[in-house]
């Protein structure tokens, strides 16, 4: 009897095994590429993982998810800093002035000590304002396009140093800049013809982006590639706009929902055979997409149908209904019009910096039009670029002093970035700014990072600076007993940085 029941249980389990394995394989990746899954993440188990893929892979079946509380993976909140990092070489600079092998290695130190990210790329060992800058680049190698730690793309390392002299900009991985993040991407053999904003046809979107490394080229309707015009049947050419067409919803054989037949041809003309079909076949799609609710926020983006949407949510709705993809930030431009480009921008040198739709920051609107002539780059809100993201920021009135790479002390990191709109100014160790100060008595400005030390008075101090202040006040009666808190002493300081 028991044997029979055991056989029944085994039979049921065997029948369920394919479903269990299918669920496991769908949610638990086996291989995680170093570049494909973003920055380190904090798990609900209090451990930092290299990326979201590594979290799913290493905690498969254990119910570990992304933590809603970013403070969970910080030592001050009780974490043991038991983080798992790979050996990927992608250097970043910490606010302690040290270079770390990758972002995950820095996160370990963020947990252990309480420092922060200064900028992407390795640290300069000297103050940025004292770096040597080239005079010209006539003899310099053209090794670009180069992605800088300020988020801008440059033609060469030499040009980067000339244009950012004194700002301490260094080379970073190309994945961190908008027009270079797809440069080395391996493209699948996806035969979906794509028309680029440069008027050329490409085998697919990936090929278009990789072949235009460093340039602002985006997908547009096929009808704009006039030199390789594809017909929509019966000798008719592909439409380039459906602005004046009457809305008459139709369902395509590809499962997408279109406003009218013109829109169907606009998005699929020459790419694949898509025809109108029964509306009932798109009913499920319509019901699913109707659950997406968007606010009134106005931050326009351009879709691959050359139509401007009020915000990214509106574009997501269009992606759900029609398969439209993101082209670029900002309003769509007139693709066929040729605008004359300025040759000189000396009079505009002192204008406000401009954030371009290609992700780069320019000295002025004139400089943007001059440097991106023919690439259809437009000005977009400053929060879309790295060095202008905090230009209009409303900083809190809290005093959390930081030392900037320009050797000036600011009330907070927010005020430092706001006051240096368009410049690559970052946090460096406070001792650089204090080296020229003369303190009287025991007064001293200490950094706020958490690197606990235990004093001989059995009290834990946030870092060695506060202990030195107490030592000064007590006339050398208090000295350091051990690293770490008094309850959790540390015998050896872990070294997670390169230099």
Description:
With 499 residues, the chain is an alpha+beta fold. It has 12 helices and 27 strands. The strands form 9 sheets. A 4-stranded antiparallel β-sheet has the order 25-24-26-27. A 3-stranded antiparallel β-sheet has the order 4-3-5. A 3-stranded antiparallel β-sheet has the order 7-6-8. The model is unreliable at 5-26 and 227-235 (pLDDT under 50).
Low-pLDDT residue intervals, each spanning 5 or more residues: 5-26, 227-235
Report the sheet-strand fraction: 5-15%
Biggest sheet statistics: 4 strands, antiparallel
> Into which percent range does the helicity of residues fall?
10-25%
| Quaternary structure type | single chain
- N→C terminal distance: 70 Å
User: What is the mean predicted local confidence, pLDDT?
Assistant: 82
What does the secondary structure layout of this molecule look like, with pairings?
Elements: H1 2-27, E1 41-42, E2 48-49, H2 52-58, E3 92-94, E4 99-100, H3 103-112, E5 117-120, E6 146-148, E7 153-154, H4 157-163, E8 171-172, E9 194-196, E10 201-202, H5 205-211, E11 219-220, E12 250-252, E13 257-258, H6 261-268, E14 276-277, H7 283-289, E15 301-303, E16 308-309, H8 312-322, E17 326-329, E18 354-356, E19 361-362, H9 365-371, E20 379-380, E21 402-404, E22 409-410, H10 413-419, E23 427-428, H11 430-434, E24 453-455, E25 460-461, H12 464-473, E26 480-484, E27 489-490
Antiparallel strand pairs: 1-2, 3-4, 3-5, 6-7, 6-8, 9-10, 9-11, 12-13, 12-14, 15-16, 15-17, 18-19, 18-20, 21-22, 21-23, 24-25, 24-26, 26-27
